[in-house]
Amino acid sequence: xxxxxVTECACPKTECENNKKCCACxxxxxxxxxxxxxxxxxxxxxxxLKNLYKKLKERFEE
Length: 62
Description:
The protein is mostly helical. The protein is built from 2 helices and no strands.
């Protein structure tokens, strides 16, 4: 079942069981201490919170 809050899913990972299920996706990523793909596009495959902090620091300290 798709999440009723989603009008357009930004995640290209169509094989993921949580694709178009934003609520389930956020819960999974919260439990694994990582960031969903749709919220962290330039991640080079590393969706960890540590890498998110690094990318944000690079972006806003320039």
